[in-house]
Amino acid sequence: MDKLHLDQHISRQYNADLEDLRTELLEMGGMVQEQIRDAISAISNADSDLARKVTTVEDEVDAREIALDEHCTLILARRQPAASDLRMVLAVSKITRDLERMGDEANKVATMAIALVDEGQSSQGYVELRHLAKSVLLMVDQMLNAFARFDVDAAMTVVREDKLVDREYKSSTRELITYMMEDPRSIGRVMNVMWALRSLERIGDHARNVAEHIIYLVKGLDVRHTSVSEMERQVSES
Questions:
Q1: Of 104, 168, 100, nearest to 130 (Cα)?
Q2: How far apart are CA 216 and CA 218, in angstroms?
Q3: Which intervals of the chain form a coiled coil (predicted)?
Q4: Largest CB tally within 10 Å, which of 28, 89, 212, 213?
């Protein structure tokens, strides 16, 4: 397991600033993780009250994004970080954006949950949704653990899982399209499920983005827009 060794500075406040940045990001990540879990539970269990709770969290997640951006800007202006310290600040800034977008997608799932309750619950599509949700939640958990431990191996696991999530999403979509063709009366309800599946797939994409930022943070490698095999090669050789 790879570890990031942040420089220790004469200024205790500088050390504290960097550690606070890490802590604040993990707190935001935990909040978004709970938002995703609640959204999935709301749509799986036709719980409109829980879905509405998810939508109210959105403002707090946005506020966390703004606060973290301000913190990163202050460190850049006051400390002029270099090497691993600079990568830490830049990575946190990028990860924050992905976390906020994951929260946006969770909010969309909650909105679909409310629509499904209003239209009358249908069991069609919920098996596919629960299956995909399980995989996405695992990715998010692995992603946060990878950042907490600066663990490149865990980050690579998230990248690989994203490919599986993409395949699951495509398979589920094909099944639901077939069902709508067989029963046109179900189109409205099933479309809501499909939009929720799309949001879950997007959450997986953002989790992969975060994993790539973690690899950059620890290894100094920019692996964006790189195939999994090429990424594995670069990481193993660094």
A1: 168
A2: 6
A3: none
A4: 213
C-alpha dist (Å) from residue 193 to 104, 113, 226 = 17, 8, 31
Do residues 195 and 110 make contact, with C-beta atoms less than 8 angstroms apart? no
Nearest to 149 by CA among 211, 89, 225, 223: 211
Give pLDDT, residue 1.
Answer: 42
Over the chain (238 residues), the average pLDDT of each successive run of 10 is: 52 81 96 96 91 92 95 91 90 96 96 84 72 95 96 96 94 90 84 93 97 95 91 90
| CATH architecture classification, 12-237 | Up-down Bundle (1.20)
Q: What pLDDT digit, counting tens, does each position of 99-123 carry? A: 999 999 999 999 999 988 887 755 5
* Distance from C-alpha of 48 to C-alpha of 215, rounded to nearest angstrom: 38
Asked whether the beta carbons of 206 and 101 are under 8 A apart, the reply is: yes
- DSSP symbols for 115-158: HHHHH----TTHHHHHHHHHHHHHHHHHHHHHHHHT-HHHHHHH
The pTM is what? 0.91
DSSP 8-class letter at 2: -
Q: What is the longest distance spanned by two Cα atoms in the chain? A: 70
Q: Is 232 left (phi over 0), alpha (psi -120 to 50) or beta?
A: alpha
